[in-house]
Amino acid sequence: MPRPRAIVMVSAHWESHELIVNGNPQPETWHDFGGFAAELFAMQYPAPGLPELTRTIVELLTANGLPARIDSRRPFDHGVWVPLSLMYPQADIPVVQVSLPSRQGPALQTQVGRALAGLREQGVLVIGSGSITHNLYDLDWSAAPDRVEPWAAEFRDWIIDKLQSNDEAALHHYRTQAPHAVRAHPSDEHLLPLYFARGAGGAFSIAYQGFTMGALGMDIYRFD
C-alpha cells in the first residue's frame, strides 16, 4: 500500500449526535480508558491535523446532504492512535477524524463513506476503526489464543458473507438478520466504522482474521 498524504478516520470512540470533523491542527493524544499498564498511558501519537482537508470534508459532506461542523479542539481518541501507532509509528502523516453519529445507524455511515470516496483518488487513506465483535462482558481474559466462542465466529462469518455478496440491505439490518447480533454488539458503535470504510471503498478483501480473549474480533478488511 503506498504511503498516503493524509488519513481520514472514523473511530468507534467519537460518538456524536451530528456529524463533526476534527479541525485541530495538532491534536493531543487522549488516553480515554482505564485499568491498563502505565506504559500505555505514556504513549503519545503526535501526528498533525490538516485543517484544509477538514474544510474539504465538510464541503463534501454538505454537498451530499450531510451537514457537518468543525471541532477545532478535539484530541485523538484511542480508536485513532492505537491502530495508527502500529501502521505509521513515526506519526508524520496528517490525520483528520470524522465523528460517529452512532444513533443514526449503518446507512448514514455508508452515505458518509460514499461522500468522501473521492478523497482516495487524492492520496488520502480512509479508515474505519472499530471491531467486528465487541461485547466486553463476554470476554475471557484468560482464554487460550486459539479459543473462539462459536457465537462470535458465526456473527463474523455472516458479516463476511454479506460483504462478499455485497448485500447492503442485509448489512444495514444486521441487528435483526445476523445471528447473535445483539450479543456481538450490545450497541452499534464498534461495528459502524465498517460501513464508513465500505462506503468509501470498492472490492472487499480480508487482510487479517482472528479473535482474542475468545470473543473480541480483531479482523482487518480492505475495500480497494
TrEMBL record:
Key words, A-Z: Metal-binding, Oxidoreductase, Zinc
Family: Belongs to the DODA-type extradiol aromatic ring-opening dioxygenase family.
Protein name, UniProt field: Extradiol ring-cleavage dioxygenase class III enzyme subunit B domain-containing protein
CDD domains (UniProt xref): 45_DOPA_Dioxygenase
Cofactor(s) recorded in Swiss-Prot or TrEMBL: Zn(2+)
InterPro entries associated with the record: Extradiol_dOase_DODA, Xdiol_dOase_suB
First and last residue of the signal peptide: none
Single GO term (MF): zinc ion binding
Organism: Pseudomonas syringae pv. maculicola
Coiled coil start-end: none
Residue ranges constituting the Extradiol ring-cleavage dioxygenase class III enzyme subunit B domain according to the UniProt record: 3-203
Lineage: Bacteria, Pseudomonadati, Pseudomonadota, Gammaproteobacteria, Pseudomonadales
Superkingdom of the organism of origin: Bacteria
